[in-house]
Amino acid sequence: MSTENSKFKDFNFAEGELLLINKPYKWTSFDVVGKIRNSLKPLKLKVGHAGTLDPLATGLLIICTGKLTKQIDTFQAEEKEYTGTMILGATTPSFDMETEVDQTFDISQITEEEIYAATKPFIGDIEQYPPAHSAVKVNGERLYVKARLGEEVELRKRFVNVPEFEITRIELPEIDFRIVCSKGTYIRSIISDFGLQLNSGAYLSKLTRTRSGNFLLSNSFEVLELVNYIRSKKEEAKAQEEA
To answer: Which residues contact 4 (CB under 8 A, 6 or more apart)?
Structure first.
């Protein structure tokens, strides 16, 4: 593959690269890290991501390699943007589609005006509880591990900032939205609380991270596209050594 007519470049993974990846549906963030790390073997490099995406979410995942992993916290602290879809009139224990619907509500009387107005309490500095099914650690153990075992945990509120919460489509029970938020914001929690704001329930059915800081999903690589390119460059290098 030629770098002259493609979006690829001659990477220097050891010195440090920032890679924008479109995380596939049902992949964990660590699946992506592992796939890229394995493609770089036999190089033993540090590879990490700057901000977890849930397995059922897709979109922009920032991967850092080599010396650039020291800057992960900086990239992770950047503002994020998401688009997604919620289902109004039902709830799930995980606030998304990981678990089955456990309660339903009549939404026939809810108007579009009420839906638009319900975003207002979630704009600005807000408090939220992380979902019980989340990667937050309590006493050194992930909440989702405890939740799957049926254990009850005491959830702690966190303060986050949401500069923008926009409703972009209403076709009940589906509602599309766009949210801009600070690091550590749980979109699932916002959606669950949004349902409560309407005296109903809601859960997240689709989520895509479209931006992190100044980095855009539109400039990202597909995982396998990048992995295949890395492997092809290694094969080229090996062939040159043997020639």
So the answer is: none
Q: pLDDT for 195-241, tens place per residue?
A: 999 999 999 999 999 999 999 999 999 999 999 988 888 787 677 77
- In the set 10, 31, 54, 106, the catalytic residue is 54
Give the distance, in angstroms, between the CA of residue 239 and the centroid of all CA atoms in the same chain.
39
DSSP labels, 165-234: EEEEEEETTEEEEEEEE-TT--HHHHHHHHHHHTTS-EEEEEEEEEEETTEEGGGPEEHHHHHHHHHHHH
Tokens 């005006």, residue located = 113
Distance CA 69, CA 18 (A): 9
| Residue 106 is among the residues annotated as catalytic for this protein | no
CB 58 within 8 A of CB 208: yes
Q: What domains, with CATH codes, occur in the chain?
A: 16-77+215-242 (3.30.2350.10), 80-212 (3.30.2350.10)
Tokens of 158: 């966190």
- The tens digit of pLDDT for each residue in 154-166 reads 567 889 999 999 9
